[in-house]
């Protein structure tokens, strides 16, 4: 401030420039007033349904009582977060979540890649289209539908799988209520619903490969498998790495609906994950604050993972995720 | 792929084709089994194991379904929220996407950031529930629509699409005296029909599949959409929590009835799928590249 008054030349300049800028800005804003009107409903939506809940996270530092509200509830500091790491329940759901995620990575992740490679090797475009159309379908079914279909197939009373088992002389298996079958069923349903849809991005990046490369490889006597190994796979390596990294970023985010639908009192020990536990503890048992703390923990880990993973991906020379 | 006429190439192609055919069958057989099973009796189902084409046709299951009020009403709720929700979502999403697509708009970067941030971090289930409750939306159909009016992902796809429309078009319309609303509705939207179609179909599938919002925000079972009813009839009846949630005196519904309910809950998607199919791959691509 003092410097400005000490230099008489600078002061008038600033004075003239500043009003000009703000009046230009005002003019621009006024000219675009209808655009701001257009943004309003959307911005309101994000404030109300996305940012208010973020504000609501503070109840995880409180002993929240619905009738007292956020303003009136008592503050308890980090008590709920400390509880997370001492309670056996939480450690169990954390390990369930991590195991399901690991299975996801191991058994689901490679499937769309393999399927895309296979689809790409199809000769006729008709069959390619036909198969693609078929394997995309389940993606549009809700989890309720996917889970319902598998339930009517594996149920003890008249489900086709159990009927076949008895037909071939095996014992019936209670797939729905045995904890041992929860994880296999979970992963099979994911593959069934998403594998086809997952091929889209791989197929697109395969389509961008220069056909000359294949031509040259054939000249050198490379068969189909060698062409896949030496041309197609290296060409889509970037996409595979990016999607893999993206997946790692969502480690605790398995989604609520699917697991919730498979969950019952018999398989709770292996099936309860963070997302379903937030529901059980919060909505069913009314532990609002504790359950919000769990959700908060999950969101923070998610944010850190995505940011870290984005950095790693850029360091590795791949395109960042955002 | 260029034709490969060597013996090895042919064997490879044959094996590949066969495997893909098996995969395609595994994908669709369960659906066919369910559809066929819904058109036959449970006795027939039990006798023939895997029914693909019913020997004895029976419409009993459907007759029963539509003789009760419950499923009619749930279908009505689902159709209603799908229509209203999709229209509202499209309207609000298009307005916002268009505003943000205009590079000369001051403050667009802040809004863009606020939108993207919601994809990375969110308040979670309980705080969102409390907001919905505070707004007095519990047990209202609005609770099935309003909390998920805009998908940030869809908005960003649409915004990128709008950004690719040549600016010259908008400039000249402006010179001709067109307002921003006029430009959006008369020029930009008609030019973006493929994107509009894709996004509306994404929204309508989401609304048709609404499940979580319903179990969180509805206590009144008379307002259940079809997905929640489907879960009550099939999933709970198959587990052992059945008696605790439904009336214990009523026997669990039989197989063909469950299958018929699945078919009814799936049908609308199977009907729009052919229309959807033309566009969605492009939309998904755009989303995965620019999201």
TrEMBL record, chain A:
It is a multi-pass membrane protein. It is found in: Cell membrane; Membrane. Residues 94-309 form the ABC transmembrane type-1 domain. This is Multiple-sugar transport system permease YteP. Pfam families: BPD_transp_1 (PF00528). It comes from Paenibacillus segetis. Belongs to the binding-protein-dependent transport system permease family. It comes from the Bacteria. Keywords: Membrane, Transmembrane, Transmembrane helix, Transport. SUPFAM superfamilies: MetI-like. The chain crosses the membrane at residues 34-52, 98-119, 140-170, 190-214, 235-256, 288-309.
Automatic annotation (TrEMBL), chain B:
Keywords: Cell membrane, Membrane, Transmembrane, Transmembrane helix, Transport. It comes from the Bacteria. The chain crosses the membrane at residues 12-32, 71-98, 110-129, 141-162, 183-203, 257-276. Its main location: membrane. It is a multi-pass membrane protein. It is found in: Cell membrane. InterPro entries: MetI-like, MetI-like_sf. Residues 75-276 form the ABC transmembrane type-1 domain. The keyword Membrane applies. PROSITE patterns: ABC_TM1 (PS50928). Belongs to the binding-protein-dependent transport system permease family. This is ABC transporter permease protein YtcP. It comes from Paenibacillus segetis. The gene is ytcP.
């Amino acid at each position: 401030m003092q410097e400005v008054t000490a230099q008489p030349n600078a002061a008038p300049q600033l004075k003239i420039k500043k009003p000009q800028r703000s009046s230009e800005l005002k003019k621009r804003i006024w000219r675009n007033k209808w655009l701001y009107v257009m943004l309003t409903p959307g911005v309101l939506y994000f404030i109300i349904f996305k940012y208010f809940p973020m504000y609501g996270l503070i109840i995880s530092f409180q002993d929240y009582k619905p009738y007292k509200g956020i303003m009136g509830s008592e503050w308890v500091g980090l008590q709920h977060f400390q509880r997370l790491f001492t309670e056996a329940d939480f450690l169990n759901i954390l390990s369930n979540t991590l195991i399901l995620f690991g299975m996801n990575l191991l058994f689901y992740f490679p499937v769309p890649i393999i399927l895309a490679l296979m689809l790409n090797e199809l000769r006729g475009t008709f069959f390619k289209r036909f198969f693609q159309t078929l394997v995309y379908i389940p993606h549009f079914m809700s989890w309720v539908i996917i889970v319902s279909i598998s339930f009517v197939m594996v149920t003890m009373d008249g489900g086709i799988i159990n009927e076949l088992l008895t037909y071939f002389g095996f014992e019936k298996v209670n797939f729905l209520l045995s904890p041992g079958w929860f994880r296999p069923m979970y992963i099979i349903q994911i593959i069934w619903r998403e594998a086809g849809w997952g091929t889209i991005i791989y197929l697109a990046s395969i389509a961008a490969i220069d056909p000359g490369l294949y031509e040259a490889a054939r000249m050198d006597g490379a068969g189909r498998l060698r062409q896949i190994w030496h041309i197609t796979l290296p060409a889509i390596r970037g996409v595979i790495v990016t999607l893999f990294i993206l997946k790692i970023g969502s480690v605790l985010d398995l989604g609520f609906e699917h697991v919730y639908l498979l969950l019952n009192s018999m398989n709770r020990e292996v099936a309860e994950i963070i997302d379903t536990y937030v529901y059980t503890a919060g909505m069913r048992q009314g532990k609002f604050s504790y359950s919000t703390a769990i959700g908060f923990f999950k969101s923070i880990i998610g944010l850190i993972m995505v940011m870290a993973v984005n950095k790693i991906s850029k360091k590795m020379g791949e395109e960042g995720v955002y | 792929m260029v034709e490969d006429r060597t013996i090895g190439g042919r064997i490879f192609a044959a094996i590949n084709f066969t495997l893909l055919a098996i995969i395609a069958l595994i994908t669709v057989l369960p659906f066919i089994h369910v559809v066929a099973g819904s058109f036959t009796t449970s006795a027939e189902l039990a006798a023939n194991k895997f029914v693909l084409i019913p020997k004895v046709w029976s419409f009993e299951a459907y007759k029963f379904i539509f003789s009760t009020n419950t499923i009619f009403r749930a279908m009505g709720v689902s159709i209603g929220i799908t229509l209203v929700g999709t229209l509202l979502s499209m309207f609000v999403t298009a307005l916002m996407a268009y505003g943000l697509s205009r590079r000369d708009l001051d403050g667009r970067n802040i809004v863009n950031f606020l939108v993207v941030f919601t994809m990375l971090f969110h308040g979670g289930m309980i705080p969102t529930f409390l907001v919905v409750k505070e707004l007095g939306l519990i047990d209202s159909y609005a609770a099935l629509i309003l909390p998920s009016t805009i998908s940030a992902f869809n908005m960003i796809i649409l915004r990128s699409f709008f950004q690719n429309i040549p600016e010259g078009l908008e400039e000249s319309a402006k010179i001709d005296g067109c307002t921003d609303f006029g430009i959006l509705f008369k020029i930009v939207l008609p030019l973006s029909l493929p994107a509009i179609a894709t996004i509306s179909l994404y929204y309508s599938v989401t609304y048709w599949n609404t499940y979580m919002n319903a179990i969180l925000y509805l206590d009144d079972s008379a307002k259940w959409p079809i997905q929640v009813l489907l879960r009550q009839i099939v999933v709970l009846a198959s587990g052992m929590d059945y008696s605790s949630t439904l009336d214990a005196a009523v026997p669990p519904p039989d197989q063909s009835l469950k299958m018929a309910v699945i078919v009814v809950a799936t049908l609308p998607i199977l009907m729009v799928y052919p229309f959807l199919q033309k566009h969605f791959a492009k939309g998904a691509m755009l989303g995965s590249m620019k999201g």
